[in-house]
Amino acid sequence: MSDSPRLPFLTLIYQQYLANQDSAAFIRKVSHAYTQGTLERLASHGSPDVRRSAVLALGFLGDYEANHAMGRALVDNDRTVRMLAENGIRNLWNRAGTQQQCQQLAIVIRLNTAQQYHQALERATRLIAEAPWFAEAWNQRAVAHFALGEFQESINDCHQALEINPYHFAAASGMGQAYLHLGDHVSALEGFRRAIRLNPNLEGARAQIARLTKII
């Protein structure tokens, strides 16, 4: 069946969501009408409204298989698409494992947020041993290493996160920050530039690039 007749419906659901902010209704209606594969294709549609609708839906409903489509949306020429992609792709990164592994990751994230970095480091290490392909686990361990002043270890984990997930702009930016603390301005600049190539919305990284290019 052609997707064309459904396009107005997708944008209608999106407009309804903008009006009422009822995410549950948006998720229900989209999931009944569209597969993830169709939403991934629509994320590169010619209409900005369709791309916005599809990217928002993938952020709510998509699994890690949608990472490539969302990664492309990060550099879309429409600012709203880029913003929706930045928010949504982080959700995908947290869904890359089994349900139990995703629950373990959520605990690591909460520990980092609570500044309980030693505990976060320990749990992230256990999760990585079980699921070494889980890029966000490496990134969260990098966050803990960074907070503990273990900058080279943080850089190593950021590298690994990017090896697994080449769209991981947070790992690229984190790597830049860690190199900055080590006084390696050239490598820091490279990290921030990589982050901006992946996600042009990163104003903090852009500011670091402007500063570093003046002092190198």
Describe the protein's architecture and organization.
Helix 1 packs across helix 4, helix 9 packs antiparallel against helix 10 and helix 10 (151-164) runs antiparallel to helix 11 (169-181). The chain folds into 2 domains: 4-93, Leucine-rich Repeat Variant (Alpha Horseshoe); 105-215, Tetratricopeptide repeat domain (Serine Threonine Protein Phosphatase 5, Tetratricopeptide repeat), CATH 1.25.40. The protein has helices at residues 7-20, 23-33, 36-42, 48-61, 67-73, 79-93, 99-113, 117-130, 135-147, 151-164, 169-181, 185-198, 203-215. Helix content is 76%, strand content 0%. The chain has 216 residues and is mainly α.
Features:
single chain, 216 residues, mainly alpha, Leucine-rich Repeat Variant, Serine Threonine Protein Phosphatase 5, Tetratricopeptide repeat, 13 helices, 0% strand, globular
Summarize the structure.
This protein has helices at residues 7-20, 23-33, 36-42, 48-61, 67-73, 79-93, 99-113, 117-130, 135-147, 151-164, 169-181, 185-198, 203-215. The chain is mainly alpha-helical.
- The assigned structural class equals mainly alpha
- Gap from first CA to last CA: 57 Å
The residue ranges in which pLDDT falls below 50 over 5 or more consecutive positions are: 1-5
CATH superfamily of the largest domain: Tetratricopeptide repeat domain
Whole-number mean pLDDT = 95
Number of extended strands: 0
* Major sheet attributes: none
The helical percent reads over 70%
The figure for the number of domains is 2
Q: Helix count, per DSSP?
A: 13
CATH architecture of the largest domain: Alpha Horseshoe
> Approximately what portion of the residues adopt beta-strand conformation?
under 5%
SSE order: HHHHHHHHHHHHH
- CATH topology call of the largest domain: Serine Threonine Protein Phosphatase 5, Tetratricopeptide repeat
